[in-house]
Amino acid sequence: MQFYNDMTMRKEEFVPIEEGKVRMYCCGPTVYNYIHVGNARPIIMFDVLRRYLEYRGYDVTFVQNFTDVDDKIIKRANEEGISSAEVAEKYIAEYWTDVKALGVREATVHPKATENIPQIIEIIETLIEKGYAYEKDGDVYYRTLKFADYGKLSHQNLEELQAGARIEVNDIKENPMDFALWKAAKPGEPAWESPWGMGRPGWHIECSAMSNRYLGKTIDIHAGGMDLAFPHHENEIAQSEAANGVKFVNYWLHNGFINVDNKKMSKSLGNFFTVREAAAVYGYDCIRLFMLMSHYRSPLNYSADILEQSGNALERLRTAKENLDFFAENGRDGALSEADAAFIAGLGKYRDRFIEVMDDDFNTADGVSVIFELVRDVNAAVSPAADPTKALAAGCRDIFLELCGVLGIPFGEESSLDAEIEEMIAARQAARKAKNWAEADRIRDELKARGIILEDTPQGVKWHKI
Prior knowledge:
By secondary structure, the protein is an alpha/beta fold. 49% of the residues lie in helices and 15% in strands. It is built from 16 helices and 15 strands. The protein has helices spanning 37-55, 71-80, 84-101, 117-129, 158-164, 203-215, 229-244, 275-282, 284-292, 304-330, 338-346, 348-359, 364-381, 390-407, 416-433, 437-449, and strands at residues 2-5, 10-13, 21-26, 59-64, 133-136, 139-142, 179-184, 199-201, 219-225, 249-255, 258-260, 263-264, 300-302, 452-457, 460-465. It has a 4-stranded parallel beta sheet with strand order 4-3-9-10, with helices on both faces. The protein has a 4-stranded antiparallel beta sheet with strand order 5-6-7-8. Helix 7 links the parallel strand 9 (219-225) and strand 10. Helix 2 packs across helix 3 (84-101), helix 9 (284-292) crosses helix 10 and helix 10 (304-330) runs antiparallel to helix 14. The radius of gyration is 27 Å and the shape is elongated. The two termini are 40 Å apart. 39% of the residues are buried.
């Protein structure tokens, strides 16, 4: 298994710190609003990475944080007339509404910044003792010039970073590139006791503290959006390695940006969409497959045409599953023939190919393509004309669901509508048996009007939604 490591700028063989175990951290959202489609990409992609590592036999400890104290949260609290804590809890709940609908599993731990204040203070104290940080009037700053390797993730030296960065004007800092570890309390803001007076943590320090607490001083994988590589991840490295004296992360993975109709997503351009808004048009399941159909490091273009293509692709996969479910229930009885057993065994080539492409820098785009190749072969073997056995259909379904499950491709649960349709089909069959053709046609027409198409086959009646 190989990953492209952004630190070394090349693909590297994945060798975990501890055999059979993976320690993985992914930066989570700042909870002051609904998540947007750009937020959704790392949430979905690194959920799949975690799934794939588990599929390959690793025991994964996956940590994804919530930033629940921040300038944006404080601003939203003032706008809504509630506390910062209430804002954070409100949008954490909204986060779960969206990500669960996107098929994302909960991380092993979802720590919050406000739950780790003692750990944050401890790291800051260590950095001050070692000369990497300094206090001024209740604020504490990281001394970037002290850390010789600053810029190694973004592959720029300090002068280049300083020239290209938006730097907050602050006469208190020793150097414009120094960044806040602790901020002195201001009236009306949440604050905690510290050796430097009442205040709150800066943004970057929380991830160093939580990663250290839940995963240890050195971790296997740190993931997030490309926009976090600098300054956030660069600052995490500086803090963690200066405090702990050891390497912080072995493999850095960043997903590419999302554009909207080939333009950068931006509120100022009016092309900024929340997941909730996009799901109202295309559905959560379609959004998930849309993300999976591109390599995680590539830029991804969000457009109506591409979302519709993803919806069509998802429908083909669902149709394939419905077909396999139907014949696993309604196919011929009997044990597998020698030819059928050989066919199912031959489908193992798709598993092998799936693993091959996913092992090559987590290529979900090619992984999805392999599944469609599998579907092509399975559809030919499991069809009304082929008159398959239940055993053949079940065997084909097993490998199909295995690979789809790794990617978390959603098929939805059986609904009350499904049960109602089955009852109507049974009523139509009873009418046909009684030669009540008018009633049978009425039921068929009613189902068609509701977007349900029936297909009479030698094995029974199949149905699908249009």
